[in-house]
Amino acid sequence: MNRLLPHRAAAATAAIVMCFGLAACSSSDDSSSDSSASTPSSSATEEMDEAMGPFGAGCSAVPTEGEGSVDGMADDPVATAASNNPLLTTLVKAVTAADLGDTLNSAESLTVFAPTNDAFAKIPAADLNALLADKAALTKVLTHHVVEGELSPEDVAGEHKTLAGDTITVEGSGEEFTVGEASVICGNVDTANAKVYVVDSVLMP
């Protein structure tokens, strides 16, 4: 029987080593799991973006109730949402003249830099009326304000291709952005199919 003792000791030692090995693997797996759990997912980033909400001094002029409010606009596609906002009546008139309403409403995902009524008022009346009467030129100007995909405040800075086929450059960060000579006065406004950044000047191609 004494001869069996070394074998039993060796077996016991091997079992102990295996146990430590399994414990180490388990610890490693737990650590890996914890690490992946602490990494923000894309959905979490989207939730943070939504929680941020609209920003900018111009947002104070947006209605607090009704279809033209921030909550009301979120329920409708972008052209319809804009038509309910009193800040954007001239833009809606231009979109209607260019027959772009259905195009914008049916798009899957857009970012729209939306000039206010005051932005259009900076254009001399004769020039604005001429633009509204020229469907091809008007379409080019309006589509110059639209980018594919919904750009969050974290992603909006940079150079982006517009639906007009050219590019625009957005500069800034946080809650301060410019698009060319225009400033974003109310950003990160959601509609059913678009992100809207309201700007104080019309962007010319």
TrEMBL record:
Domain of life according to the entry: Bacteria
Tagged with keyword tRNA-binding: no
Region of interest: Disordered: 26-77
Gene Ontology annotations of biological process type: cell adhesion; extracellular matrix organization
Gene3D superfamilies with a match to the protein in the record: FAS1 domain
Species whose genome carries this gene: Aeromicrobium senzhongii
Keyword annotations of the record: Signal
GO cellular component labels: extracellular matrix; extracellular space
Phylogenetic classification of the source organism: Bacteria, Bacillati, Actinomycetota, Actinomycetes, Propionibacteriales
Name the record gives this protein: Fasciclin domain-containing protein
A single MF term (Gene Ontology): cell adhesion molecule binding
FAS1 domain sequence ranges: 75-203
Signal sequence coordinates: 1-23
Biased composition (Low complexity): 26-44
